[in-house]
Design brief:
mainly alpha; 1% strand; 326 residues
Length: 326
């Protein structure tokens, strides 16, 4: 039976409950429109994966304190700001099945709300003189922006090599998960070895998380994932299963598939053809093997920590990342 985030978060469940209240009070605004939008955002709470990682990383390294709550708030503000801005960039009408901020209040309000959340996070760090937090989160924002821009640049081209793919997903996805783990560690310890171990664990888990996402796009049914199969293909994204399939296939066949992908509007038949090509040329199997080896490496990064409920949960989270079906 597959694990859930609520099971993984058990060792820090009471802290997460307190955090929900702490965060709600923290982001209140006296500006009426802003407060309405912020309350709308709070209602759409997801699985709270990022605060969970902050608290577990803090717990594996020491005792959770108010500094950990500040760290988790900063990450949550940063993450929420990027989601709001992403929906504007992607012209998305929905976020987790609910109308997005830009769909309800238009782009101008959405961009300004995203800016507010980002500024609020930076101010919290400054007010509490948490300059390590500032460095970690600012690096993460820079990397996410660079990763997004590199993906846009490469999407106009007909090819994507393995090295560039890993650069994009490291910056776009792994940087934030790495930030959660590093900032959690920083909130409870000065031990540089502990901090580095958590940062590296987060980076590796984040990379594997994105590979699994890309695998699911070729395998899942919309009833499980909540998006149509081949969604990345429709968006003409070249991801790891396709990169590996092209490496394994005859060069001419790989070129023909990429040409089909990059052509005009894709028919359902073309999408099926691309999926079939990836399956037949072991793209999914090879990508899964890569994700598994990365998770093995991630677990090794935290193996030296003393046994604790937090350590067990972080090891379970690593498993969850590659075993999830959505």
């Amino acid at each position: 039976m597959s694990l859930s985030i609520s099971e993984i978060s058990q060792p820090v469940a009471s802290h997460l409950e307190e955090f929900n209240v702490f965060f709600k009070v923290l982001i209140r605004s006296k500006a009426a429109l802003l407060d309405i939008v912020l309350r709308y955002i709070l209602k759409q709470r997801g699985k709270r994966v990022r605060p969970t990682l902050v608290f577990l990383s803090a717990a594996i390294c020491g005792q959770i304190t108010r500094r950990t709550y500040i760290a988790a708030s900063l990450v949550e503000l940063l993450h929420t700001a990027t989601l709001v801005h992403d929906d504007v960039v992607d012209e998305a009408d929905k976020r987790r099945g609910v109308p997005s901020i830009n769909a309800v209040w238009k782009n101008k309000v959405a961009v300004l709300v995203g800016d507010y959340l980002l500024a609020k996070g930076l101010l919290i760090a400054v007010e509490h003189e948490e300059f390590d937090y500032l460095r970690i989160t600012s690096t993460s924002v820079r990397r996410m922006s660079e990763g997004e821009l590199l993906q846009i640049q490469k999407s106009r081209q007909k090819t994507l090599d393995e090295e560039t793919y890993f650069k994009i997903i490291s910056d776009k996805t792994a940087s934030l998960i790495s930030t959660c783990c590093e900032i959690g560690a920083v909130s409870t310890t000065d031990n540089s070895e502990y901090r580095k171990a958590m940062k590296d664990y987060g980076e590796l888990v984040g990379i594997a998380f994105q590979i699994q996402d890309d695998i699911l796009d070729y395998m899942s049914r919309s009833s499980i994932v909540g998006k149509p199969i081949g969604n990345d293909i429709r968006e003409k994204k070249i991801t790891l299963p396709l990169i590996y399939a092209c490496q394994n296939a005859e060069k001419s066949k790989g070129k023909a598939i990429i040409k089909t992908l990059k052509s005009g509007k894709l028919s359902n038949q073309s999408i099926e053809e691309i999926i079939e090509f990836v399956i037949m040329n072991n793209g999914i199997i090879q990508a899964q093997e890569k994700a598994n080896s990365i998770i093995f490496e991630a677990k090794n990064k935290i193996a030296f920590f003393p046994d604790s409920p937090a350590k067990i949960s972080l090891l379970k989270f690593a498993e969850y990342v590659i075993n999830r079906t959505k």
